Amino acid sequence: MKRPPQLLEQTVSIAGQNPSPSPPTVKRLIWAGLLVALAVVGAAGIRALRAPREAAETLPVLTSVPAFSLIERSGRRVTDADLRGQVWVVNFIFTRCSSLCPMLSAQMSRLQSHLREQGEAEVRLVSLSVDPEADTPSVLSEYAERFSADRERWWFLTGERAALYALIGDGLGVAVAQRPGDASSDPNELITHSDRFVLVDRASRIRGYYRGTDDEGFAQLLRDLRTLQREH
Question: What DSSP string runs through the chain?
Answer without folding.
Answer: -PPPHHHHHHTSPPTTSPPPPPHHHHHHHHHHHHHHHHHHHHHHHHHHHHHHHHHHTSPPP-EEPPP-EEEETTS-EEEGGGTTTS-EEEEEE-TT--SHHHHHHHHHHHHHHHHHHTT--S-EEEEEES-TTT--HHHHHHHHHHTT--TTTEEEEE--HHHHHIIIIIIS---EEEPP--TTS-GGGTEEE--EEEEE-TTSEEEEEEETT-HHHHHHHHHHHHHHHT--
